[in-house]
Amino acid sequence: MKHFTTKFLAVCAFLAVVGSVQAQVFYQQLFDGPGLPAGWTTTDPSGNNVLWERCTNQTTDCHADLGYDLFAGADKANGFMILDSDGAGDLGSGITHQSRLNSAAIDCSGKPQVYAVFEHQIGVFDYAADENAQLFVSNNGTTWTAFQLFEGLEGGQGDFSDNPTVSGIDISAVAGNQATVYLRWEWIGNYEYWWTLDDVRLTTIDPSPANDLAVNDFYYPVHSYATPESQVAIDTFDFEAYISNNGLAEQTNVKVYAYVQEHDPNTGAFISVLFTDSITIASLAPGVVDSTFTLPNRFVPDLPAGLYAVTYEVVSDAVEQVPSDNFEGDFFEITDLVFAKENGPQTASRPQDGGDWAVGNYYRMGPLGANLEQYVAVGAEFAYAVDPPQVPGDINVEISLYRINDDVDEFFSNFEPDGSSMELVGLSGLDAPDGTENFELLSTELTDLGSGLPGVLLDPNGRYILAAGYTGESATAFAAFNDNVRADFVSTVTYIGGDWNLGGFVGSPNAVLRMYIDLATSTDDNPLAETALNVSPNPTAEFVNLKVKFDEPTNATITIADINGRVIRTENRSAMLDETVTYQMPQLASGTYLARIATAKGTRTLKFVVQK
Hints:
Strands 1, 2, 4, 5, 7, 10, 11 and 13 form an 8-stranded antiparallel β-sheet that branches. Helix content is 3%, strand content 46%. By secondary structure, it is mainly β. The radius of gyration is 29 Å and the shape is globular. The N and C termini lie far apart (70 Å).
């Protein structure tokens, strides 16, 4: 059985390269007439009447879009089929629809090889698509053979396939030389999203391209999507890619590249390449799937605040016929103040069994050797959603900060789920104000459990879990998550039924639960000499010069902060002796700010004024 799946961006190239496939198409259904095509039927043996229908609505695609992109099939303007599981509503616990779209009889006589090709897209929430959404083929209408259409769509918190997915499946074992062949698209589920289908074709030649290398998966070396500039030294990037040869031909001189690139969020373009590494494979046979390749070099992300990306690419001697899957990657941010696992709320989830529960994010501070300042956790930012008739303003959220014990190993293999492997060090809580909306970002200050003062002192190399607890009537709330950002390390955790689960929810979505840090102090308890730091011009408008002078080469941390000690810019410098560092800061409003330098021997802090 042969099965390929590719993204829509490659469809034009795919058809151009294998134009003979189109010439050998002996059956096509575009769903461009009113209602179901002649001989086609839709049924639901479960008795729940969740049926496929033809859609021509370009505004809604016949479903509540819920913020998701509409179907992007090439011929969608002329109509397509849709099964709206979401629109059917919740059928009840343990109840599922069994929705079928059945083709008319198709004559495959004299065609020993038969391939089914079609465009579609599916969105699942609880029920895995690879098990519950399949193509069935029969040559007698009684005995049916299942063909898998989706891989990796597990459900649990919601997931969509590529938009559209173009599937090509070898159904010759059932349909070859058969005078009567039936196709059936069947989805078993309950209150999922929707499944769209268009442009069904049967062809006699293999539609797979000869040259189709793909980056199927990759290693995302970032511990958190967003990391403060002062703490990013904890991350040293390794690079690993999972390469497949989906084509029919052997590929030679295969090169796998890894890049770290700076990205401009305003233009959507990459500004510069900061790191490149590669590895060459002499040959890769057809049919190789997810072969792992580790690149030899590492990257230390000594980066200023900004948006960046880790990107992988695969190429070979041959002209690539499906270029859209030759690249993969993901973004990460270096920030001034905030740790985050995501780039914004997208979905919301909670445990299915009810009861009090909590969700947490794992964050790690950088080592003292990389940054010579001390920091405090000053606050948390989070989001959630509720179902009517409950309103978001009724929710109370308990925020806790835990420090993971030093005897817990790097890979958490001896972490105790009962919570004894960590210590509660900070607390906060928030009664949501009236008018709060679903997915609105809310913030609260953290209090040190020992001192009772604002801000929790964070240890260099310290490992922490910031948790949001939902108890009592608030336990019905759904914490906000993001499915777009990878989590290749311990990332989001859950507390359910008295145990901490380091794996989080199914599918490993990241919780919208951010930790803000600031300088622990802006006073000079061990002051450096006056010559160590001077500021000019003062007052200034858009830039500041910091004149740094030491008697010997000295490692130092330079920080720009507001008058309350909130960090605006920080940078670690090695072997400073006698130099001037200039910072352009046109974004600063008029006011008083702090320039500060920290070394192993002490600190020096000066005020400067911005006038505009």
